Amino acid sequence: MLKNVISIIMGGGRGTRLYPLTKYRCKPAVPLAGKYRLVDIPISNCINSGCDEIYLLSQFNTASLHKHIQQTYKFDNFSRGFVDILAAEQTDSGGDWYQGTADAVRKNMHHFRRHGKDSYFLILSGDQLYQMDFRTLIEAHKKSGADITIAAKPMPKREAPSLGIMRVDENLNITEFVEKPKDPAVIDSLLIGDKLKSGLKNPNDEYCLASMGIYVFSQRILEEAMSGNEMDFGKEVIPGFLNRKKLCAFIFDGYWEDIGTVGAFFEANLATTDEVPPFDFYKPNMSVYTHSRFLPGAKICHCSVDHCNISDGVIIEDAVLKRCVIGVRSIIGQGSNLENVIMMGADEYPFGHENGTKIGVGKNCRIRNAIVDKNAYIGDNCVLSPDGKPDRWDAVEGLYVRDNVLIVTKDANIPPNTVV
C-alpha cells in the first residue's frame, strides 16, 4: 500500500449533458457495462494501485451512489482502507453547495488534515473510463520534485474546446495551460510536436496535450491552494499556479474516455462488446470491483447473440441480439430483436409480485440504438428507434432522445404496440 496518499474522487455536478440518465442519480452512479457503476472505475484504480484511503465528494442525487458505496466497499478490520462519502453539508463556517472542484476540496480540508503532514493528494474524477496504475503517477511526481502533477493525454485537435490544454517543455514541465480554449489560433499554438506524437496511432494527425482532470498535489501546495477562494482546479487553481510553482505533466497513453454526454456514454458501453475492447475488463491485476449480488448465471435459450456482454441473472428466450450490453436481471421475451442496445437491468425480479410488476423487454419487440434504463418495461410488439427524432424529443411518456440515442427512462412502462 502507498503510504501518505489520500485519494479524493469528485462526485460531479448535475450531469445535465447525461440527462435523463442523471434524473434520479448523479453521474458516478450511472450503471456501466451491465453490472458496474461509473464510480467503480476510479475506486478500483485506487485499490489496485495500493491507494486505499479514499474520499468520495458528492452533492446531487446522491442516494443511489451512497447505497452502492455502502453495499460494495468494505475493508477488513486490520486494514487502513476505507471509502468515505463526504456530502455537501452545513457547518459553522457556511452551508453553501460545492461551487466547483476546488471549493469541494476546500470545504472538506478538516477531514483530510487528520491524516497528518507530508501527505500526497490524488484528485480524481468520478465519471471517467480508464485504467491507470497510480503508483507510477505518484512516483513520477516525487521524482520530478513537482508541486503539482497533472495526468495528461494527447487528444485530437477537434476535442480541445472541451478540455484543459497544456504546453510542456522537454522535461514535461508545464509552461502554458488554457482551460477549454475556443479560439482556433490559441488551439493551433498549443499543438504538440513530433516527439510526443511518435507513439500515437495516427502520428500525422494534429493533437493537443489535454489534462485528464487527474492531479497529484503535495500537501503544502494543496494547503496553499485552499487558502484562496478559487472554485475550480482546471479554470483557476492550475492557471494561477503556472509559472509560480513547479507544474509537471505525466503522459498517459492508454484508453481514456470522459463520460460527459449520452453519446459518449453510449459508444463507450457498446465498445466493451468489441473483440478487442478499448477498455479491458479482463486485464490482469486491474480488476474492476462492484457490488456482489450472488445471482445465478445468465440463461439464454434458442437465441442468436453476436458481440454482446451478458450479465448475471439475465433471462433471454428465442431472441436476436447484436452488439448489446445486457445488465443484471434483464428479461427479454420471445421473438424480440435488439441491435445496439444497452439494458441497465433491474433491482429485483418481478416474479411473485402480486401487483403484476414487469421489467425488461416483452415479446416480438424491435429496438435499435437505445438505452433501456433500470426497472423499465417495454410491452409486447413495440418498435423503438431514435431515427428521425430531433434531440431532446420526448413526445411519448417514458421515451427521450439525446445525441441520436433513444432512452427508455428509469421505471418507465411502455405500452404494448408502441411504435416510434
Question: Mind sketching the topology for me?
Answer:
Layout: E1 5-10, E2 31-32, E3 36-37, H1 40-48, E4 53-58, H2 63-72, E5 82-87, H3 101-106, H4 109-112, E6 120-125, E7 128-130, H5 134-144, E8 148-156, E9 164-168, E10 174-179, H6 184-189, H7 194-197, E11 207-218, H8 219-226, H9 233-241, E12 247-251, E13 256-258, H10 262-271, E14 299-301, E15 304-310, E16 315-317, E17 320-326, E18 331-332, E19 337-343, E20 360-361, E21 366-372, E22 377-378, E23 383-384, E24 399-402, E25 405-408, E26 413-414
Parallel strand pairs: 1-4, 1-6, 4-5, 8-12, 14-16, 15-17, 16-18, 17-19, 19-21, 20-22, 21-23, 21-25, 22-26
Antiparallel strand pairs: 2-3, 6-11, 7-13, 8-11, 9-10, 9-11, 24-25
Descriptive keywords:
420 residues, Spore Coat Polysaccharide Biosynthesis Protein SpsA, Chain A, UDP N-Acetylglucosamine Acyltransferase, domain 1, 2 domains, 9-stranded mixed β-sheet, 7-stranded mixed β-sheet, 26 strands
Q: Count the E strands.
A: 26
Helicity, as a percent range: 10-25%
Number of domains: 2
Say what the CATH topology of the largest domain is.
Spore Coat Polysaccharide Biosynthesis Protein SpsA, Chain A
CATH class of the largest domain: Alpha Beta
The name of the CATH superfamily of the largest domain reads: Spore Coat Polysaccharide Biosynthesis Protein SpsA, Chain A
Describe the sheet with the most strands: 9 strands, mixed
Structural class: alpha/beta
Please identify, by name, the CATH architecture of the largest domain: Alpha-Beta Complex
Beta-strand content bin: 25-35%
**Separate helix tally:** 10
- Ends distance: 53 Å
Q: What is the radius of gyration? A: 23 Å
